[in-house]
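Run log // design_07
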C-alpha cells in the first residue's frame, strides 16, 4: 500500500479521534456493545443527528458498513481525500455514495507489556458482519479472540530479537515490537501487505516482514521469543469445500501444530521461549495431550546433548468433532441451511470418522530451550521437562507476566529433590484464597478448595493438611518444619505428611499459588 497515503490516513484518524473510547462516548456503551455483537440499529440511531461529524462518518463507514456520501468522507479524511482512499483500497463505489472495501478498526488489546490496553488501527478484510457472505480464500483476518489470547499470555520482558510465525494482519508483531526488534513471517503475500501497512499506519518500526512457509524465511537464525497463532485448524483434505489461508495450512489433521512444535526449538536461543496456540486431536484410545508431549519429546531429542526442552501445555477446552465442525463451518460465513454449510459439516465429520478422532483440544504450548547440565537433576533424553494440564479459567490482567513467572518458578522447582523442597521456605502467592464448605452445625468442613485468580483463574481441592500448609507458607518456616508441626497437630505420620506436602507443593507451583522464598537455583 502507498506509504504516503498511509501517513496521511494516520493524520486524519488522529484528528478525527478515531479511537474506541471516543466511539463509545459518541454512541453510548450499550450501543457499542451491541455493535461488537453485530447489532447495528442502536448505533445508527445514536448517529442519526451527527451526519457531518468526521468521527460519526468513519464509524458509519468502517464499523457499521453504511454507505456515506463522498462529501462527508472528504470532510472526515481531508488529508487523504477520496482519491487517496481509493488508492489504499479503503472504499468502493456504491449506490448513493461510498462503502468500505476493507476493514479499518480501532482496537484495544490487553498486553502485560503495557499498563493499559494498547490502541491500534488495524486494516484487514471485512469481517462476517460487514461482508454479508462467505470470505475469499485469501481472506486476511483482523483481531480475533485467539490473537488476543496469544498476546495476553506473552512474556512482557524486553528481548534482543523476536519472531512471529503466521503474522496475518500483523497485530502480534506490533506487540512484539514493544519488546524489541521483530521478524514476522507469513506464507501469504497479501497478508504481508496488510501487516506492513498496519505497522506504518501505527508508526511502529523495528519489524522485518518476510514471506515464506513457517520457519523457512529464518533458516539458521535464533530468537529469544517466538509467538505464533498459525493456521492450525484441523481441516478435511478430501473435500472441495472452500479453504481459507488464515486457518488452513493444507496439512492432514494437526500436523501444522506438530511441525511448529518440532521445528521451533532449533530457532530458540538458550533461554528462549516459544508460545503458540494450537489445536490437537485425540484419536480413539489416545489423549491428545500425550500426543503433544511426544512432539516435544521428539524436538528435545533432535536438539542433541547440548540443550534440553522444557514444555508447558495448557488445554483450555476440549470439544467434540460435531462442535468443532460446526464452529469452522460457520467461520467462513456459511450458515445452517446453506448448501455450503451442509457440505462442510459432512466433510469434517467424514474426515474425523475415517481417522477415528473423538475429541479436539484447544490451547497453548509454551517451550523453553535450556542448557543440559551434567548433574543428575536434569532428566534423561527420554524424559524432557513437560507439564500438561487442563485449565479453563479466565485470564487475569497481566496474565502474561504471571504465566511467565510461574513457568520460571516451576522450572526452578522441578530441579529440586524432595529434600530440597522440604528445606525451602515457600511463599503463598498474593490473591490465593481458601474456600471451606460446612454442613450447618458441624465444625469440620466437608470440602476445602484453594483458589487463585492471577494468570489463569484456578480452583483446586485441598485436604486439611495441604490447606493448613499453604496458610503457613509465608517465608518464615521451611516446608519441612511446617510438615512436622502439622503432623503433630493433626496426629498423622510425619513422613507421610512430608511426602504428601512435597507432591502438593510441586503441583501448586505450576498453578502459580506458591513461590520460592529463597531460590535454590535458576534455569537458564
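design_07 sequence
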Amino acid at each position: 500500500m502507498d506509504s504516503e497515503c498511509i501517513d496521511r490516513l494516520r493524520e486524519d484518524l488522529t484528528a478525527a479521534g478515531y479511537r474506541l473510547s471516543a466511539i463509545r462516548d459518541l454512541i453510548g456503551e450499550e450501543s457499542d456493545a451491541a455493535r461488537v455483537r453485530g447489532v447495528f440499529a442502536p448505533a445508527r440511531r445514536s448517529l442519526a443527528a451527527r451526519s457531518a461529524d468526521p468521527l460519526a462518518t468513519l464509524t458509519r463507514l468502517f464499523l457499521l458498513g453504511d454507505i456515506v456520501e463522498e462529501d462527508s468522507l472528504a470532510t472526515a479524511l481531508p488529508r487523504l481525500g477520496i482519491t487517496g482512499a481509493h488508492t489504499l483500497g479503503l472504499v468502493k463505489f456504491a449506490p448513493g455514495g461510498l462503502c468500505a472495501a476493507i476493514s479499518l478498526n480501532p482496537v484495544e488489546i490487553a498486553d502485560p507489556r503495557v499498563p493499559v490496553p494498547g490502541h491500534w488501527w488495524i486494516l484487514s478484510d471485512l469481517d462476517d458482519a460487514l461482508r454479508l457472505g462467505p470470505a475469499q480464500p485469501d481472506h486476511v483476518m483482523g483481531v480475533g479472540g485467539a490473537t488476543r489470547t496469544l498476546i495476553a499470555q506473552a512474556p512482557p520482558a524486553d528481548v534482543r530479537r523476536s519472531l512471529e510465525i503466521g503474522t496475518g494482519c500483523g497485530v502480534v508483531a506490533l506487540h512484539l515490537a514493544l519488546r524489541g526488534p521483530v521478524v514476522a513471517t507469513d506464507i501469504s503475500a497479501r497478508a504481508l501487505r496488510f501487516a506492513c501497512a498496519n505497522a506504518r499506519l501505527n508508526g511502529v518500526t523495528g519489524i522485518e516482514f518476510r514471506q515464506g512457509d513457517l520457519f523457512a524465511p529464518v533458516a539458521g537464525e535464533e530468537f529469544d521469543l517466538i509467538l505464533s497463532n498459525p493456521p492450525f485448524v484441523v481441516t478435511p483434505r478430501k473435500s472441495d469445500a472452500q479453504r481459507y489461508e488464515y486457518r488452513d495450512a493444507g496439512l492432514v489433521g494437526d500436523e501444522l501444530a506438530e511441525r511448529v512444535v518440532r521445528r521451533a526449538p532449533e530457532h530458540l536461543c538458550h533461554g528462549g521461549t516459544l508460545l503458540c496456540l494450537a489445536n490437537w486431536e485425540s484419536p480413539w484410545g489416545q489423549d491428545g495431550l500425550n500426543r503433544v508431549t511426544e512432539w516435544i519429546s521428539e524436538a528435545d531429542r533432535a536438539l542433541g546433548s547440548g540443550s534440553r526442552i522444557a514444555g508447558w501445555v495448557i488445554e483450555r477446552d476440549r470439544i467434540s468433532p460435531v462442535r468443532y465442525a460446526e464452529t469452522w463451518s460457520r467461520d467462513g460465513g456459511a450458515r445452517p441451511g446453506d448448501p455450503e454449510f451442509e457440505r462442510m459439516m459432512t466433510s469434517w465429520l467424514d474426515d474425523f470418522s475415517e481417522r477415528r478422532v473423538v475429541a479436539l483440544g484447544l490451547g497453548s504450548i509454551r517451550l523453553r530451550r535450556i542448557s543440559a547440565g551434567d548433574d543428575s537433576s536434569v532428566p534423561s533424553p527420554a524424559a524432557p521437562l513437560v507439564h500438561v494440564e487442563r485449565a479453563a479459567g479466565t485470564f487475569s490482567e497481566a496474565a502474561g507476566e504471571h504465566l511467565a513467572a510461574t513457568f520460571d518458578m516451576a522450572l526452578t522447582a522441578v530441579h529440586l529433590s524432595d529434600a530440597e523442597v522440604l528445606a525451602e521456605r515457600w511463599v503463598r502467592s498474593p490473591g490465593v484464597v481458601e474456600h471451606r464448605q460446612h454442613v450447618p452445625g458441624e465444625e469440620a468442613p466437608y470440602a476445602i478448595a484453594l483458589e487463585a485468580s492471577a494468570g489463569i483463574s484456578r480452583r483446586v481441592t485441598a485436604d486439611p493438611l495441604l490447606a493448613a500448609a499453604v496458610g503457613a507458607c509465608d517465608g518464615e518456616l521451611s516446608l519441612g518444619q511446617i510438615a512436622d508441626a502439622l503432623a503433630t497437630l493433626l496426629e498423622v505420620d510425619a513422613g507421610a505428611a512430608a511426602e504428601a506436602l512435597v507432591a502438593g507443593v510441586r503441583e501448586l507451583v505450576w498453578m502459580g499459588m506458591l513461590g520460592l522464598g529463597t531460590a535454590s537455583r535458576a534455569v537458564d
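Confidence is low (pLDDT under 50) at residues 374-382, 519-524.
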